[in-house]
Amino acid sequence: MAEQEEASTTQLVGIVVVSHSPALARAAVDLASEMLHERPVRMAIAAGLPDATLGTDAVRIQDAIEEVDSPEGVVVLMDLGSAVLSAELALDLIEDPEVRERVILSPAPLVEGLVVAAVAAAGGADRKEVAAEAQSALMGKTDHLSPSGGSTETSQPTADSAQEVATFVVHNRHGLHARPAARLVSEMRALDATVQLRNLTTGAGPIPAASLSRVATLGALEGHNIEILAAGPQAQEAIEHLLAMAERRFDEPADQAGDDVAEPIQAVQRGDQGNCPLAASSGIGIGSVRRLSSAPVPTDEAPIGAPAEEWQRVIEALTDVRRDIDRVRAVAARDVGEHEARIFDAHLMLLSDVELLDDVKRRIGDGDGAVSAWIGALEVIENQWAELDDPYLRGRAEDVRAVGAQMLTSLTGTPAVAMTGVGILVAAELSPAQAAELDRDCAQGIVLAFGSPSSHAVILARSRGIPAVVAAGPDVLDLAEGTSIVIDGGSGELVIQPSEEALAQFRERAAELGRREQQDRARADESAVSVDGAVITVAANLGSGADATAAAAAGADGAGLVRTEFMFLSRDRAPDVDEQTREYLAIAETFGDRQVTFRTLDVGGDKPLSYLSMPVEANPFLGHRGIRLSLDRGDLLRDQLAALCRVARRAPISVMFPMVSKLAELQEAREVLSAAAGPEGIPDRLRVGMMVEVPAAALKIGTFLPHLDFISVGTNDLTQYTLASERGNPAVAALADPLDPGVLRLIQQVCNAAHGQIPVAVCGEAAADPAAIPILLGLGVGELSVSGLSVPSVKARVRALDLTQCATLAKDALELGDAAEVRHLVSSALADAPLTS
Length: 837
Ligand code: PEP
Ligand code: MG
Known about the structure:
The protein is of the alpha/beta class. 44% of the residues lie in helices and 14% in strands. The protein has an eight-stranded parallel β-barrel, surrounded by seven helices. A seven-stranded mixed β-sheet has the order 10-14-13-12-11-15-16. The longest helix is centred in the middle third of the chain and has 29 residues, at 307-335. It is globular and about 100 Å long.
């Protein structure tokens, strides 16, 4: 948020101070305030980036302008380089054309300009006069120091008089690739100098040093000589700074810069077992590295708006994507390290690349729509990069593609789910929407640089049978398209450029898995009856109608969890009651007389809804999600429950509420249900349950029981909350194990309290974990709800178990210290009942 510096007055021009540095902006405002002698002027500061680093941010500037705006208008003063671009973007972001009209971006020097502008504004000058005052702010100083007008002799060059020239040698092993180039560009943008670069070794250039897309086209490799041409007030500083940075290899650590490592990353991992990512979705994936490309976009389908409207669309998409990248960058910095996260700075830089945006704007001016203008401008950059001689730098076209795809997603509302070909998708992270819409025929596996096994995107990959490993580290993002790669999503192994021998091994594993799956599938339609005759319901977790069809075909005894939120993602508004009714009914009918449990909307946490305004939360998993958000957005909940009541009149379904922590929430949700049911009342067949995901709910389970027909334990969330280990965070993924006796004790408490009253199911990922199944059944769980594809193997696992033995195992497990001990206990006790998935 912009900082408001003065109490509000209505009749004076407002002033916005845009600076890379909050400290500088505050000091300048203090200085100007000294001159005002307590006369009030509204001044707002927009300085620094949201992550507290130096820089300027268009959204902050927009906020600041809107804060000090009045019918008298606003004058904006800026410091260096990209501040001007950000201020221009901010103007574009302002929706109200009247407000935009009355803003003047002043080219005046920040400090001198601010002082005179503030004095003029305080004196009641209009905005044009204030801007004119600011612009002439240097006159006094110029007169005083110039030989004709002043008494002091000076040898300072004027702003444009000199062009400074110098050369440096690139010492980085991969040349000026994304990170060092981004560093160079951001430093140059912060100076008041026009800097150009020429590659003397290849003759490429000169190109503006303030444009990341152009710096990449220099093709600057290790050992190349680069010429710097700098003009402007800070030309000398720019040269000195650039030379020093080049000497320091643009602050790349030694291994990245190429000092201490003999081989680039592809070769380090080539043929060996690579670093060990986390197992996330079982199965073997063998293929070539592929990326997400932009989905085919219906460029010409929508009518093209006026240029101003189309440009506005681009601006909004830029803001959107910038926020997304900021978020991923913050997660990457936290989970993997600040240095690795800098790859995203290059992505951010592209989003404010002057050359790129100018090209987009020009195309829009020539009549293109936002989407085709963006695609066209990006293609130019991609082609320039793709023509570079060096394969490593050429590979950086990936960065352009990644950002380009994100922009198209935002511009069109369609997730970028098209892969660049059949193979193993390698990406930084996946959103749940992307995972849900990946083309199964293309995706032979997924490797994520970040992420964790219990994130929703990974759960979806699992439910779609796509082998996956996560937390593989950012180096995988440097793998060239087409590199051969194999993964074992069950063990977490990843091998880059495998030898023939390794390939044969993985193929053999895949064949063995296939044989076992075939055996399990042959009996999938039969009930899961334990050795001692207990019938356990093995139901499916679903996110769509297609999942329902697949799960019913895989022998599921019903659906224990329909994650309805997936029908709300990837669209620009919530489905209405009719549409929901159709979707829910189709799912229910797929299962005939088998019970289907719909969970009400569970958004928040790692599942944002683009059309719900959700403020950024420091700890979204501890925040406004699940039933908390639904109760606050009663309209959404009511529509959903109305649709479910309609379906319940025609099929045997249940409804359950997520993330309940106290009885009042359940009661309120039931009141919304009664209201949504209308005059006919709640259908008799509709069973009402809740998820136990919050430890407090498990501990207080007795208070809920009289109001429930069933309970479903969400072990994914229950585990993250019990062990204080965020489910999306790879750094604590090993700790977040549902077999921890702390979690098991909570489940035991729930089962004991519900015993003889209502059934208890488990629908978290633990329900499909071969080691967890005997413990859960031993604690008294009667239903396991798992991804459709896991149904046959989970049924096979149940058939091999004796529940009396499971009860003893569970009792012993509760006494142990951690999940590893429990896993050890299970594997030694059930050595003759091998794990089947
Ligand atoms: C859970 O938390 O275990 C659960 C099933 O819900 P979700 O994974 O959708 O949060
Ligand atoms: Mg949950």
